[in-house]
């Protein structure tokens, strides 16, 4: 199914194209300004009755006036109209910029909904109409959702690149490359009398391998997902090593209970921070040790599980014990993704190096008094370097950001891999060429589902299920 056929559908999954829809486009809270957005064929008719001045102004020109319901004045404010297709949705759009009180907003919405054929917009419907009307592809729509939800500067920049079409262009480049190869194979199938030995041409296989290499590299990238969903950081170590103290230091508040009693932390305690612009979830875990206490033993099991799943690991060791790293803690460290923090460094006379070597691998080390706020800068700087290393080139590249992107790329990899296998078995039979062509079609289709070049209603529902009403 392509966009042209979908655009003319009467309705799908509750969405009915051709309706005029309205919703509050700003947060549903008392505020200085609220934006009520109307999109569809009756938008200008509604504006004519509720604020005639907006139709007398040029498109995109803000005008002031009274918002009325018949003879009753509802509010006074600004309005603007956008003539389709030069609008966000691709349809005629009117926005009333009213005062943001709940009573004002509700009165305006009620007045608009009183017009026959006007209904409330469903979640994500404005953006969904924009996609169906060719104003953006699905990756840009997802970028818009991520931009609205962005909490850090890195998230904002990644979402903005996706909204601007960087990810869509990347996928469309792959799809075009596959379609070009497919065209060559189909030419050999359609014109057998020409005796075109397309499958025997090394250049054709090389083109497939080039795309396959790009896709395999893309699916291996985790930076986009880590920026969007956050980086996980686990703090591990022996009981009373200072793990909870470190969590509190980094969080700037008393997140975890600190006690001289061993085994105080029995479950995973988390805190979310912005480190170098990246969202990082810190997880303080139970102290690693053998214990007969059933509850504490479960905490230790969860600590190990958290450490294995974490993107970054921080091992806290007790400076009063010489900063020695216990074997069961050391075995959890991962090169390039781990930091060693020596706590209680103020209580000993020892000098600690800036790194420690374990089985031939060097790990950065910070020794500090974790109860002193002055230690925050040093620990944060060391963590910042690890976070940037783990996130890779997320600040520049157009990266896969969702599970559906990864799944589509893996499907495409499977199709291209099968095509190469069949080419290796080719001996001039037409049936082999047809099988190769089918594998290439499936690969192109899988890539196309990401941008919407080839799609289904199910894909649309997945993408727009997370949107709010009014977007």
Short description:
The protein folds into three domains: 3-137, Probable tRNA modification gtpase trme, domain 1 (Gyrase A, domain 2), CATH 3.30.1360; 148-221 and 400-451, tRNA modification GTPase MnmE domain 2 (Four Helix Bundle (Hemerythrin (Met), subunit A)); 228-391, Rossmann fold. It is 45% helix and 19% strand.
How would you characterize the overall build of this protein?
By secondary structure, the protein is of the alpha/beta class. The protein has 3 domains: 135 residues, Gyrase A, domain 2, CATH 3.30.1360.120; 126 residues, Four Helix Bundle (Hemerythrin (Met), subunit A) (Up-down Bundle), CATH 1.20.120.430; 164 residues, 3-Layer(aba) Sandwich (Rossmann fold), CATH 3.40.50. 45% of the residues lie in helices and 19% in strands. The protein contains 17 helices and 13 strands. A 7-stranded mixed beta sheet has the order 8-9-7-10-11-13-12, sandwiched between helices. The protein has a 6-stranded mixed beta sheet with strand order 3-4-5-2-1-6. It is flat and about 80 Å long. 42% of the residues are buried. The N terminus is likely disordered.
